[in-house]
Amino acid sequence: MKPGLAKGTRDFTASEVARRRYIINILQRNFELFGFQPLETPSFENLSTLTGKYGEEGDRLIFKILNSGDYTSKVNQQDWEDKNHQKLTSQISDKALRYDLTVPFARFVAMNHNQLTFPFKRYQIQPVWRADRPQKGRFREFYQCDADVVGSESLLQEIDLVQLYLKSFAELGVSVTIHINNRKILSGLAEFAGITDKLIDFTVALDKLDKIGKEGVVKELLERGIAQESIDKLDFLFTQSDDALENLLQLKEKFAGNETGLKGVEELEFVITQSLNLGVDIQNLVFDITLARGLDYYTGAIFEVKADEVQMGSIGGGGRYDNLTEVFGVKNIPGIGISFGLDRIYLVMEELGLFPEEAVSKVEYLFANFGGDEIVEALKLIKQLREKGVSTELYPEAAKIGKQFTYAEKKGIKNLVFLGEEEIKNGNVTYKGLEAGEQKTVSLEEFLQF
Q1: For the chain, how far is it from start to end, CA to CA, in angstroms?
Q2: 235 labelled binding-site residue
Q3: Each residue's pLDDT tens digit, 224-265
Q4: In the 8-state DSSP scheme, what is residue 197?
Q5: Where, in this chain's numbering, is L-histidine bound (predicted)?
């Protein structure tokens, strides 16, 4: 059978792994600079933990795991004959691969809240799985890099997370724009248009604006049972100015007497104003009234980060979820979190040529293999180099020197070392820099020094 990869998954070569680690190391360093501590959770959870947390569309994309053994033994025969997949799923599967890192984190907090110190700040860098349609920048297995704070309602957390985003992307060399909105503003808009009972339908459709355009959103709103009269009231959403604070002022007028909407405007105004006071460029922080992020659990601020120089979906996102642990029986633990899309960040950096040369780890020295007693001396010297933290290897066979050269060049090894009979007798080492093509013979002491 010809081997192949499961759709939406990838192998990573040595250079790709090294570049991914380069990104992860920068993110990890910044997470810890901002006071976040690491956490890891299992790759799969109870299906009941995940379902009902991501909305109808999200639930469909959860990878379910079949029960082990004879998973059909407890299936209701009638459901089987009717092919009722919704009822059958719970009978043949009680586990699922995690869809994101936020819900498992909420489950962890709910289980351990009596032992945690609040506000509790954690970061998590692990793979997640979604049964999505693979396309550029969208995979079925991908890494998320999350930072969350629970146990604080302070809007200073939102400001801190804006700073974390901008600092991290600046160090990666990626120019970004953070789009920001507030779920209370979206609730206020639904109230303003008289469609409060259709809030989820409204936000799910609105969230697709950048993919399907105004006409597509209007069409979907109509299909979801929202009246044309209500849609007309919301027409101003599609003609926003570039001035975030001016747009918020316009909303204040429309939200007169609308408590939820006004609260959202007030919160967002504070976050944007204070971020600007800290030196954030208004070009980097955009109030995007159409930003909805189609997840049911957001209750306040919502973020989406987009690369300025590459056409791609969001490379980061998140928001406030003040009642997420409530579904696990633990009330009054507010939270806010953001995520960095490692795979998309990688694609952006690759396209823009932003990876420094040192991001790819290379072997410093390859010792040529001459066979005989020289091998023993070479191994002794290799041991000394490795103890100094220098990446070194010995070619395993006493092959023709041309073959050893080719191996070093293909692998990107920087230097080829010759420790032959003559060098050993004179206490010297000969090495050739493969990039410059320059060959030198130096004393053993000198070689070990540099």
Answers
A1: 51
A2: no
A3: 888 888 888 888 888 777 777 888 888 888 898 899 999 999
A4: G
A5: 100-102, 130, 144, 148, 293, 297-298
Question: Residue 426 is part of a domain; what is its CATH number?
Answer: 3.40.50.800
Residue 332 has pLDDT above 80, yes or no: yes
Residues 319 and 388 in one domain: no
> What residue has token string 């009246």?
227
How far lies 123's CA from each of 28, 31, 35, 104, 331, in Å? 8, 7, 9, 12, 22
Tell me if 293 is assigned to a ligand binding site. Answer: yes
Query: Which residues lie below 8 Å from residue 152, measured CB to CB, with a gap of 6+?
Result: 118, 119, 334
- DSSP structural state of residue 135: B
138 in a labelled binding site: no
Q: What is the CA radius of gyration of the chain?
A: 28
pLDDT tens column, 383-420: 999 999 999 999 999 999 999 999 999 988 999 999 99
What share of the chain has pLDDT > 70, as a percent?
94
Strand partners, 149: 121, 336
Range of the domain at 191: 14-63+99-352
Distance between CA atoms of residues 395 and 399, nearest Å: 9
**Is there a binding annotation on residue 384?**
no
386 is in an annotated binding site: no
| Domain count along the chain | 2
320 vs 302: CA distance, rounded Å: 7
Pairing assessment for the beta strands 415-418 and 428-433 based on DSSP bridges: antiparallel
